[in-house]
Amino acid sequence: MMKRLVLLGAPGAGKGTQAKRLAEDYGWAHISTGDLLRDAVREGTALGAQAEAYMKKGELVPDDLMIGLVRERLSKDDCREGFILDGFPRTVPQAEMLAELLDEMEMPLNDVVSMDVNDEEVIARLSKRLVCSECGFMTREGDAQIEDACPVCPGTLIRRKDDEPETIRRRLEVYQESTRSLIEFYRREELLRPVDGSGLMDAVDARVRKLLGLPTEIG
Ligand code: AMP
After folding, report:
1. String of b and e for 86-97 (b: at least 16 CB within 10 Å)?
2. What is the pLDDT of residues 63-92, one digit of tens each?
3. What is the distance in A from the centroid of ligand 1 to the CA of 94?
4. pLDDT tens-digit profile of 129-167?
5. Measured between alpha carbons, how far is 204 from 113 in angstroms, rounded to an integer?
6. Cα(95) to centroid of ligand 1, in Å?
7. Which label site among 44, 63, 196, 206 has the fewest CB atoms less than 10 Å from its CB?
C-alpha cells in the first residue's frame, strides 16, 4: 500500500522506531532529517558544518537549510513508492514549504500521525537511549551497555550527544515552542491522526497500523 506520511511527536515519542518498521514493511522511503543532518556532520559537508552547532545545543537548524535538504531527498526515485517523514516538518514554515513542494510534485500527503507521549516517559526513554554510531540501530541502556558492539553492523553503541539531560530538556522546550503549532496546522488541513504513543513498541505499532488501515499480514 502506497502512502505519504508525516510522523509528529516530541523527541523520544518513538517516531524513529515506528518510521523504520513501517518503511521496511511497506517499501517506503524513511526520511529522518536528524539522520540526514548527522550524516552531513560526519561527512564534513558545508551543511553539516552549519548545522552542528544548533544540533549540539538542541536548537532547530534554520528553515532555509532544512528546506534544501528535504527538497533534494524527496526528489529521489525511492520516494515514488511512498515515504515517511520523521522529524520534518518541525515548524509551520517548513510545513508550508513541504505542502508547496509536494503539490508541485503531485505527491500530496495522505496522513499526519501525531504520537502522544507524556514528558516523563519521553525523558525516561531518551536518557536510556543508545544508538549505533554507524547504522542508527537503537536500543536501551540495560538491554545493552554503552560502547557495546552493535548487533547488526561493525559499529559501536553510543549515547547521542543531544541525549544528555540538559539538552533533552531544551529539545522538549523547543518542541513545545515550535513544533506543537504544527498539530493545529495539520488539524486544519484535516490530515491529523493522533495516536497514543505510550507503552510498548509493539502495542504502539499495532495502534498506528490500525489507525492508517494498513494490512498487518505482509507479503
Ligand atoms: P532528531 O534526530 O529528529 O531528534 O533531530 C536531531 C536534531 O537535528 C534536532 O534537535 C535539530 O537540531 C536537528 N533537526 C532535525 N530535523 C530538523 C528540522 N526539521 N528542523 C530543524 N532542525 C532539525
Report:
1. bbbbbbeebbeb
2. 999 999 999 999 999 999 999 999 999 999
3. 12
4. 999 989 889 999 999 999 999 999 999 999 999 999 899
5. 12
6. 14
7. 44
Residue with cell 529539545: 171
Tens digits of per-residue pLDDT, 14-40? 999 999 999 999 999 999 999 999 999
Element (H, E) at 115: strand 111-116
Given this model, what pLDDT does residue 215 score?
83
Residues sharing a CB contact under 8 Å with residue 174, sequence separation 6 or more, in sequence order: 58, 59, 60
Catalytic residues: 15, 90, 129, 160, 171
Q: Phi and psi at residue 160, in whole multiples of 5°?
A: -60, 145
Q: Which residue lies with its CA nearest to atom 11 of ligand 1? A: 60
What is the C-alpha separation between 73 and 190, in angstroms, rounded?
25
Grid coordinates belonging to 18: 515506528
DSSP secondary structure letter of residue 163: G
Strand partners, 111: 5
